[in-house]
Design goal:
Helix content: 55-70%
Low-confidence stretches: none
Largest sheet: none
Order of helices and strands: HH
Number of strands: 0
Strand content: under 5%
Mean pLDDT: 85
Length: 59
């Protein structure tokens, strides 16, 4: 499940990414495996981009 946060076709809202982050933590029981940690880091980058994009005024 590799998502590219730079791809405009897979752009999700910060809320959607945040929901996936919460699900990941819940599934892991609060202790991330190395694979989960990699996914978490990717999600954080995607979330940060989505939050940054949502702060920009519409053109």
């Amino acid at each position: 499940m590799s998502r590219s946060p730079c791809s405009s076709e897979t752009t999700r809202t910060a809320a959607a990414v945040n929901e996936e982050i919460r699900d990941l933590w819940q599934r892991s029981g609060g202790c991330l495996s190395p694979e989960d940690e990699e996914q978490y880091q990717r999600l954080l980058v995607e979330w940060a981009a989505a939050t940054r994009d949502s702060d920009r005024p519409a053109a």
